[in-house]
Amino acid sequence: MSTPPSNYLATLWLKWKSLKLPWRRRWLAGQDLAGNTYWYFKPTLSAPNTRRILQNNPKIPYSDLDISPSWHQWLRHTRPTPPSLQEQRADVQRQVELKRRAQLADERWKAQGSFIEKPRRGNLEVGIGDGEKEGTVGRRGEMGKVRGAGEEGEGEKREREREEWRKERVKGAPGQGWQPEAWTPGRVRR
Fold first, then answer.
1. Nearest residue to 54 (alpha-carbon basis) of 45, 34, 46
2. How many Cβ atoms sit within 10 Å of the Cβ of residue 71?
3. Beta strand residue intervals within 112-158, DSSP E
4. Helices (H), ranges, the chain
5. How far apart, in whole angstroms, are the C-alpha atoms of residue 142 and residue 164?
6. Is the alpha carbon torsion for 154, 156, 162, 164 positive or negative?
7. Taking the model in full, what pTM does it have?
8. 34-38, 127-131, 159-163 — which one is most confidently predicted on average?
9. How many C-beta neighbours within 10 Å does residue 46 have?
10. How far is Cα 115 from Cα 107, in angstroms, rounded to an integer?
């Protein structure tokens, strides 16, 4: 005999409860890895439609109850058949593998430099030949610093772009010259 007697009796009990006999209002659909059981349920014996319910393991408190996505789909009638134990074990293994891969990806991302952080410059701090009084690589446009030839500040650049946009606008477009008028409320008639 390959299975212990207690396991054999539990399997026999599950098979008996899963039989859909005409006098039963509920019958077993399956169980999950935590010991929760899932049941088909009819409110009355003559009811045409069945409901699906969960009976949690009494050893697990409600706050620690965790329903797997496959059983949740079955309870919501989006999955026609209940998941098997092999499918549930494969899903747990998939989740463990996914967490391991996510951890490896996080480690790879941490090993790479961030684009947000300040770059390491080494000897580039002294800007020789860039038209500045002192080494200000990465700090152009600050107060008291001289810009290189042909460079413009952020404000000048924005103003130049606005001027180009104004020139490109079509003259005589409807509503181009419209300005809102001042509003004065009238007297209230009562």
1. 34
2. 21
3. none
4. 5-17, 69-75, 85-111, 154-168
5. 26
6. negative
7. 0.51
8. 34-38
9. 6
10. 16
